[in-house]
Amino acid sequence: MGTILVVAEIQKGAIREASYELVTAARSIADAGGHEVNGLVIGSGIGEFASEFASKGAGKTLVVDDAAAENYNVDVFSKAIKAAAESTGAELILISNTPTGWDVAPRIAAGLDCAFVSDAIKVENGDGGFNFRRRIFNGKLDAEISTSGRTVASMQPGAQTAFEGSSDGSTEALSTDLAATAKFIEIKIAESTGVDLTKADVIVSGGRGVGDPEKFPEVIQPLADALGGAMGASRPVVDAGWLDHPYQVGSSGQIVAPKLYIAAGISGAIQHLVGMKASNFIVAINKDPDAPIFEVADIGVVADLFDIVPALTAAVKDAKG
Ligand SMILES: Cc1cc2nc3c(=O)[nH]c(=O)nc-3n(C[C@H](O)[C@H](O)[C@H](O)COP(=O)(O)OP(=O)(O)OC[C@H]3O[C@@H](n4cnc5c(N)ncnc54)[C@H](O)[C@@H]3O)c2cc1C
User: Fold this and answer.
1) Distance, CA of 156 to CA of 251 (rounded, Å)
2) Tell me, what's the pLDDT at 196?
3) E-only strand ranges, the chain
4) CA-derived radius of gyration, the chain
5) Is 253 in the pocket of ligand 1 (CB under 6 A)?
6) Boundaries of CATH 3.40.50.1220 in the chain?
7) What is the pLDDT of residues 281-302, one digit of tens each?
8) For ligand 1, atom 7: residue with the closest CA
9) Probe ligand 1: pick from 138, 156, 216, 294, max atoms within 8 Å of CB?
10) I want to staple 286 with a disulfide (CB 3.0 to 4.6 A). Which of 28, 185, 246, 291 is the partner?
11) In whole angstroms, how far apart are CA 113 and each of 41, 107, 145, 277?
């Protein structure tokens, strides 16, 4: 029976939700027959995380618990993952497509001299390997990729739901040479701008369609204020320097689930959708009737945002008196 190795990622004192999404992907392949799921937890003083991962879906979980792994170091983590893949004979090694995953996953594939698929949204058993789906060209096309033999894959956070079941899991220490050339120096946390979208009940986000940095305070923020909510943005807005990174919603920004999410001038690329599709009620305003954002919207308005957003703001203010 082949093994699927699921690599957990610990962040801010907890196993990331994305790691449990990997468990969902691994379990669906295992349930289709022929594979066992194993977990891997790397760090220092992480016994309780390993037990949690083992009992919440990962099953047998290897633990690399070493002072050298206290902070993320690509040399240490890639050696640990490679050793775990070799000791379990894993055919598929699943890693989240987070900044850590971007860094470490290709190195493991190179070290194991095997196939590598990055940023997959779906994985299934294949003919002698695995079949993957990746979204390309800003979500306009899906690519189907088949691998043969051992495969390392990074999976896009938010593309699966997190595993919520339990498993009979044991933990097993794995010791291996963790000597590193790279040296950990420090982690710098970005200065807070006071924006915490994850706590907002209402988010009004603007995208590239807003077209001008001045229009965010003039058009988008007033609607957010009228609704007692916060302003958000898509990535191009942040990449262009119109707003700071804490405003960004999406796979490389904030993952949010407010009661109301209003997307104005946002096309709905998968990387944006994974950050907001769990919102309770979604309103999309876009000039293009074929924009993918309408697929997740509860109300879709095909119109110019500069007609709709100010009118909405005025209506909300009127309603409040
Ligand atoms: C690894 C990776 C990570 C990424 N992470 C993120 C992320 O975290 N968050 C994120 O958002 N993106 C992310 N992206 C980028 C993502 O793929 C898209 O490029 C991005 O979401 C598009 O932003 P947008 O919808 O604002 O712009 P566009 O795709 O350019 O869409 C603009 C939309 O505005 C509409 N529009 C134009 N003018 C108006 C108007 N006057 N009124 C109404 N509608 C109008 C257009 O019809 C169009 O649909 C990531 C990409 C990669 C590769």
Assistant:
1) 8
2) 81
3) 2-7, 10-11, 14-15, 35-43, 61-65, 92-96, 115-125, 129-136, 141-148, 151-155, 171-173, 202-206, 230-233, 260-264, 281-286, 299-302
4) 22
5) yes
6) 197-320
7) 999 999 999 999 999 999 999 9
8) 250
9) 138
10) 291
11) 22, 10, 18, 37
Tokens found for residue 182: 């790279």
Residue located via tokens 């900044």: 99
Both tokens of residue 103?
């860094």
Best CA proximity match to 20, nearest among 104, 90, 96? 96
Share the mean pLDDT of the chain. Answer: 93
Kindly give the interhelix angle for 74-88 and 99-112, rounded to the nearest 10 degrees: 50
CATH of segment(s) 197-320: 3.40.50.1220
**Residue of minimum CA distance from atom 39 in ligand 1:** 209
- CATH homologous superfamily for the domain 2-173: HUPs (3.40.50.620)
Residues of the chain with CATH 3.40.50.620: 2-173
The separation between the first and the last C-alpha atoms of the chain, rounded to the nearest angstrom, is 67
239/60 Cα distance (integer angstroms): 42
Closest ligand 1 atom to 208 CA: 26
Look up the pTM and report it.
0.67
Instruction: Indicate whether residue 245 lines ligand 1 (CB < 6 A).
Output: no
Q: Which residue has the tokens 């498993």?
A: 167
- How remote is the CA of residue 269 from the centroid of ligand 1, in Å? 6
Position in ligand 1 atom list of the atom nearest CA 234: 11
